[in-house]
Amino acid sequence: MVALNVNGKSYDVNVDPETPLLWVLRDTIGLTGTKYGCGIAQCGACTVHLDGEAMRACIVPVSEAANRKITTIEGLAENGVLSKVQQVWLDHDVPQCGYCQSGMIMAATALLKSTPKPTDEDINAAMTNICRCGTYQQVRAAIHAAAKA
Amino acid sequence: MTGTATLRRRSLLVAAAATGGGLSLGFGIPAGPARATQVREINAWVVIHPDDRVVIRIARSEMGQGSLTGLAQLVAEELECDWSKVTTEYPTPGQNVARSRVWRNFSTGGSRGIRESHQYVREGGAAARMMLIQAAAAEWKVPASECVAANSTITHTPSGRTTTYGKVAVAAASLEPPKDIKLKDIKDWKIAGKPVKRLDTLDKLTGKQIYGSDLRLPGMLTATIKACPVHGGKLKSFDAAKVESMPGVRRVLAVDGNAVAVVGDNYWAVHTALQALPVVWDEGPNARVSSDTIAAMLREGLDAEQAFIGNKAGDAKAAIAGAVKKVEAVYSYPYQNHATMEPMNATALYTREKCEVWCPTQNGEAALAATAEAAELPVAQCEVHKLLLGGGFGRRGRSDYVRQAVLIAKQMPGTPVKLVWSREEDMVQCQFHPVTQCKLTGGLDAQGNLTGLHVRISGQSILASLLPQNLQDGKDPVVFQGFNPGGAESAFGYNIPNLLIDHAMRNPHVTAGFWRGVNTNHNAIYMECFIDELAHAAGQDPLEFRRRLLKPKHLAVLNAAAEKAGYGKAPPGRFHGLAQIMGFGSYVAGCAEVSVSSSGKLTIHRIVGATDCGVAVNPAQIDRQVAGSFVYGLSAALYGECTVKNGAIEQTNFDSYNVLRMDEMPEVESVIIPSGGFWGGVGEPTIAVAAPAVLNAIFAATGKRIRSLPLAKHDLKSA
Fold first, then answer.
1. Taking CA A68 as the corner, what is the angle to CA A66 and CA A71, rounded to the nearest 5 degrees?
2. Which fold has domain B5-206?
3. Considering only residues 423 to 462 of chain B, which have any Cβ-Cβ distance to chain A shorter than 8 Å?
4. Which of B213, B388, B628 comes nearest A135 by C-beta?
5. What pLDDT, in 10s, does the model give residues B622-639?
6. With contact defined as beta carbons under 8 Å apart, do B181 and B123 qualify?
7. Contact flag B630-A134 (C-beta cutoff 8 Å)
8. Class for domain B212-284+344-420, per CATH?
9. What is residue B531's three-state secondary structure?
10. Which of A38, A95, B401, B523 could form a disulfide with B204 if both were Cys (CB 3.0 to 4.6 A apart)?
11. Which domains does chain A have, with CATH numbers?
C-alpha cells in the first residue's frame, strides 16, 4: 500500500512501489488529465506538481510521491473557477489538439510560482514540453499575460 | 464536445475508478433517428433544444486543426443562430451508413475538412433556418416571406411578433426540407469569416477532455502490443509462460500473424510484461535493408531510363543541352514519423452479434470498415465511436491500430479491451513520410533566363504503399503535388518554356504514408532551393528571379510574405530566404530570417507566412495553423530523420527523434490574403515552405547549400 495525497484527497493504492506515478494517477485513481507521451521524461505531457514543483510523472516511482502533496491538472481549478493560468490559456485560445496542454499548464503554473515575471529566456528554460501541433507562440503569449494579470 | 442527447439510444455509463476520480461519460450508440422529447433534429446537421441551445453535427474529425469550429461557423452563419448557444457533436460512422451517408465524407485529411464540405454544410444550416421560419409563419398564419431570422429569433416584420428557434423546433422538424436553397453572400457573413474562438477549448484546460487513450468502460482491460520491427516480417513464436504469472497480466495473444499483445488490468502491468516477453520474429529478407541500401536504390532512379511523367512542356532535355549555362544538383529527403503526442490506441468490445470500437481516427468510415473486416461481421452489426485525437497529421487516417484492437477483443468476447501503443511501438510502426531523392537540371541563356528545367524525383510512392488500387497504370499522381501542370489542387507556379518533371518509383519495404503536407514537403524543398541555386547562377536576386517566372496567384503570396518580412532589408547579421508553393488548394509563401554564428549555430529569428486560401473561414485559426505548420515543418527540417538498420527503424522515442521546442521557436507572422472565388485548405500547405525558406536563408548567410535533411547533421561553421 502506498499513501498518496492527490489534489487534497487521500488515496491508499495497492500497487508495486516502482510503478510510475503517471500510471497510478491514470489507471488506479482514474485521473486521466495527466497524459502519457513518451515514458522517458522527454515530452512533459505527464507534468504534475510534487509539493509545488513540476515533475514528470512518467519517471517518478509512486513510492517517491508517497506522503507528498501531488497536484494534477484536475486540481488547479477551485470550486469550478479556473486558475489564473487556465484562464489566460482560455483567453488566448492556446490549445490545438490539446493533448500536451495539461503538461504545459502544469509547467507554466510552476514557473509563474517560482518566477512571477518570467523573461523569454526563463520561459525557454522552464517550458521544455513538446507540442506537435505547434502552440508555442500562444503558450508564450499566455504566460506573459498571466504574469501581468 | 457536448450534447449527445438526440443521438443517444442507450447510455453506457462509464464507471468511475473504484478509488475515486469521478469520471463519467455517456456514449450514444445510435441506430436511427432517435429523438428525446422536445429536442428536435431539424435536419442531419442541426439539432435545436427547447431552451434554444443549438447542436451542430460535425462529420469530420477534430485533431487540433480547428475545422470543428470552422464548420460550425459555416452552419451557424446560414442558420442565423445565436453563436453563444452552439455546441457540436459527432454523428457516428455507423449512423452515416444507416442513413445513406447523409453526412457524406468523414475522412479528415488533405486539408479537406472545410474546403470539400462547405457547400453542403452551409446548405444544411440554410435549410434548417428556412424550416424554422416556415414553422413560425405557419403558427402565426402569415407568409414566411414576411419573417426574418437572426440570432435564433424569428421576427414577423410587419407585426413585430417574435419567437425563438427552441419554441418552433418541434413543428419545424416535421416539415418537408426546402428544395431551393440560396446561400448568403460571403460579404454578409457575421459568424463565418470572423476570428471567433474555438468551441472545444475549455475541457482541454481542466483534464476533463477524454481522448481515446483516456477511455474507461466497465470491466475494461488494457492491452499493449509489439509488431515485428521489420515491416513485412512475421511473428514466429513467443514464450507466454515467462510473463503470464506477472501481476495484472491476463492473456498473451498473437495478433494478425505479425504481432503479440499482452492484455491485463492496467497499462503499466501489460507494458512491463511485454518488455519481459521473449519473442522470436521471422524478419524475412527485409532485414538486410539499411538506410545506405535504400539511398543506393533511390540514386539509381535518378538517371533511370523509365519514369512516370507528371508535367511536360516543350523539350527540356534539348533546351538544357543547348543552354549557355547548365546547373545541376541532387537533393534528398529522409523518412519521418508523425509522432502525434498521443500514441495510437483503440478500444474494442466484441460479441458474436456486435463489435463496437471507440477510437481517435481521421477516417471514421475507414475505421468502421476495418472493424467489420477484423470482426468478420456485417457493417450493420458494427459501430465506431470517434473520440478526440491527440494529434493526427495523417497517421490516424490508417486503421491498423483499430484492426489490432478488434483482433484482440475478438479473442476475449464480451470484454472491452483498450489497446494502447507505447511510444516505442508508435515510432517503429508508423507509416512514414516517404523517402525520395531528386536530381534537378536547369539551363540558363546568356541573359540568365531559365530556358529549360528537368526535375527527376526518385523514390517512394505513398499510394503504392497504402492504396495500390489508386495507382493509374502504375503511376502515383500524388507524387507530383505542387508540380501539376494546372488544376485547383496543387499547380506548379513557374512558367518555364521547356519543362520535364518525372518520377522513377522506387519502393523500399518501410511503409510510407500520408504525413502532414505529404509530397509537397520535399517537392517544395527541391524546387524552391533549386530556383535559388539558379538565381545565384544567373547572378540575380532570388525574389526578382522568381518574379519573372511565377504565375499571378503564386507571385501574390510570395510578394506578400516578402513585403511583410521586409525582404532585402534584414537587420545586420541576419539573412532572408524565400519559398512558395501551391498545395491543398491554397497558395502559400514563406520568408525566413536567420543568422548563423561563426561557430555554426543557426538561429531562426522570424518567419512570415502568407496564405491565399480563397475564402478565409476563421482568420484566427488560420494564423494558428500557419504557426503550427512552421513548427511541424521546422521540426522536420532541423531534426526529422528516421534511419533504417537491419530492416527496422532505429529511432524509438523523442530522445533519438527530437522536435522543435519553445527555445527554438521563431516569431511567426501570418498574412492572410484571401482572393476569393475558391476554397483552399490551410492545415497543411504552409509546412512545405518552412524548410526551403530556412535553407535559402542559410545559403544567404553562409554560402552553404544544404541539400539533405536534417539540418542537425550539417556543420554550418564558416569555412
1. 110
2. Aldehyde Oxidoreductase; domain 4 (3.30.365)
3. 423
4. B628
5. 999 999 999 999 999 999
6. yes
7. yes
8. alpha beta
9. helix
10. A95
11. 2-75 (3.10.20.30), 84-148 (1.10.150.120)
